[in-house]
## 1
Amino acid sequence: MSEKWKGLGVNDPRKIFADERLRGRCVFCGAKPDTKDHCPSKTLLDEPYPADLRVVLACLKCNNSFSLDEQYLACFLECAICGSTNPDEVTRDSVKQTLREQPKLVASIAASLSLSPDGTKIWKPDMDRVRNVVVKLARGHLDYELCLQEWRDPDVFEITPMPLMTPDQLEFFENPDPGPATLWPEIGSRAFLRMLPSGDKINDDWQDIQDGRYRYLVGQTQGNFVHIAISEYLACRVTWE
Ligand SMILES: [Zn+2]
C-alpha cells in the first residue's frame, strides 16, 4: 500500500475523504443534513452494540421518520422467528421490553398471524413499513460504502425469509456474481479503500455488523445493489439499475 493511503481505517467515518460534494446531503432524501443517523439502526441490533456503529448524514425529518417502522420490523421479525407475540417467548431483550410496553404494537402483529389449513403459522408483515425500513437501510449502506446516493425508488425490491429460499436463491443472495468491474468506486470511498492491496475485494465483502443479527453486502455490476441479512432470517435485496 502506498504511503498516501496508510492509516486510513475504512470503518472510521472521520477518515473518509471522498469529494465533499457527495457527502453534503441527506442520504435518504437529498435535503440539507442536520444530523447523523445510525445505519443500521440500534433497534435491529442487541446490546452490547458494536464499537464502530456506522453513521450517515440525514435531515431531521428523515432521521425521525423511520424509528417507528424500524421498531415494528424488529418486533415483527422476532415474533415470526420465535413463533409468538408473547414477550416471555421471544429471545431478544429489547423486543421483550417493547412488546411489554406497547400492547397496540403486539395487537397489530398478532392480527397479521394466520394459520394455514395444515396448522402452520403464517405471518404477513405490513409491507409498506418493511419496505420503508429496508430501502432506507440500503440507501445508507450505499452511501457509507460507495459514497453513492440513490434517491429514486429502487428497481428491484425483494424480501424473502431465508428458510423459504431455494438453494439457488440462497447462493445468489450470498454470492452475487460480481461480473466485470465496469463501475469504479469513488476515489476515497470505503469500497475504494477495500480494493487497495491490503483491503478486501469489493463484491465479495459481507460487512458483519453483529454476528447472527445483521450483515450486508454492497456491490456494483449493472447498477448498484445491496443485500442485507437481518437476524439470519430475512434476506433483503435492493437494486438500482
Ligand atoms: Zn432527508
Note: Residues 26, 28-29, 31, 58-59, 61-62 surround zinc ion (CB under 6 Å).
## 2
Amino acid sequence: MTNHSNRHLFSPYKIGAMQLPHRIALAPLTRCRTGDDRVPSDLHALYYAQRASAAIAISEATQISPMGIGYRGTPGIHNEAQVQGWKRVADAVHAAGGRLFVQLWHVGRVSHPHWLGGETPVSSSGVLLEGQTRLSDGSLVPYVAPRALALDEIPLVIADYVAAATNAIRAGADGVEIHAANGYLIDQFLRDGVNHRGDAYGGSIPNRIRFLREVTEAVAHACGGHRVGVRLSPTNRFNQIWDSDPHALFVAAAESLNPFDLGYLHILEGVAGSSSAPAEGQKPVASTMRKAFHGTIMINGGYDAASGDAAIQSGLADLVAYGIPFIANPDLPVRYRLGATITPPNQSTWYAEGARGYTDYAMLTHEQPAAVNASAS
Ligand SMILES: Cc1cc2nc3c(=O)[nH]c(=O)nc-3n(C[C@H](O)[C@H](O)[C@H](O)COP(=O)(O)O)c2cc1C
C-alpha cells in the first residue's frame, strides 16, 4: 500500500551542498552501548547504518571532553580511538546512502565525581541538581553541588567543543549538532533557574546567551556553518532546568544564531500530549523562534507521519526529527511512506547492553524503498 498523503514530509530539501531526499531526521538517542573506553564499535556502525534512510541521522549525545561525561556507556569524541570508532560509523552510514551529524555534549552539573576522576562537576553556577544518579556498579548516589566555571575556563571549554567538532568532521561526519537542550551545560547557562552568575555570562538574556553564541560561532568557524546544527529545548524541564521567561530567552537565542549560516536550528518542543510538550504553565515558543531564525528549522517531540507532514505544510518547520519511533522501526521513512505498521519499542532495552533491543528490530525488505519511489507520486 502506498501512502500518498504525506507529500510534504517526502519532498526533497537542501542544506548547503547536502541534498536530502525527504524531511525525516533521526533524533539524537542515547543508547549506552559503549564499553568503558567510550569508543563506538561495529555494533554502533550497524545501528546507524540501519537508520541511514533518515534525511540526517543525528548521533546520540557524545562527550566533547572527559569533564563532559555523566553516564555509563555514552561515547566520546575527544581521543583518537573514539575518532576511529566514529569513522567506522560514518563510513557505514555513507555506504548505506545516509548522512551523519554527531551530537556534541557536555553534561555540566548532570555528572558526579565518579565519572570525572574525583573532580567536581562544572556548571554556570553552583546550583545542585536534586536527586540521584546511577554509577557504573549500578548503585544510586545523590548528585553533588557543581562548581561555577571560572571566567578564564570558559574559552577552554569552547576550545573543547571546537576540537570535538573538528574530530567529528575528520571522522567523516557530515556535520555536528551542538547539544544546547535538556538541562545540560549550555542550557545551564541559558536558563535563569540555574544560571545565577553575576558576570558577562549571567543575568541579562544577552549575557546568558553569550556562551551558546560563542560556542556556535567557534564551531561554525571551524567546520563551516552548514555543517553545524544547534539543538534547543525552550520549554521542557529535563534535569530540573527552568526559566522565568522562555519566550523572551529563546526567541533572542534563535535570533542570536542568525549570523552563523547554520545548517539548521533544532527545536525540541513536543506536540500536545507528548512527554516533550511544554511544561505546565508554559506557552509554546517554537513558532515565534521560527520567525526569529532565518535558516532551516527542525522540529521534534511526539510527532507521527501525519503531524510531521502538517508541521511542514503549516510552515512551522522544514525538517521533522523522530526519536522513539526510530528505535523499533529502523526504516521509519519507508514505513511512513508505505503507511506500514509502526512497531512500539521495548523500553526496558533503551539503555541496556548489546544487540538486544538495539540492532535486532526488523526492517522491511531492502528492495522496498526503490519500489516505493517508483510507484509513489
Ligand atoms: C532513549 C532516549 C534517548 C535520548 N537521548 C537523547 C540524546 O542523546 N540527546 C538529545 O538531545 N535528546 C535525547 N533524547 C530526546 C529525543 O531526541 C527526543 O527529543 C524525544 O524522544 C522526543 O521525540 P520523539 O517523540 O520523536 O521521541 C532521548 C530520548 C530517548 C527516548
Note: Residues 27-30, 60-61, 103, 179, 181-182, 231, 268, 274, 276, 300-303, 322-325, 350 surround flavin mononucleotide (CB under 6 Å).
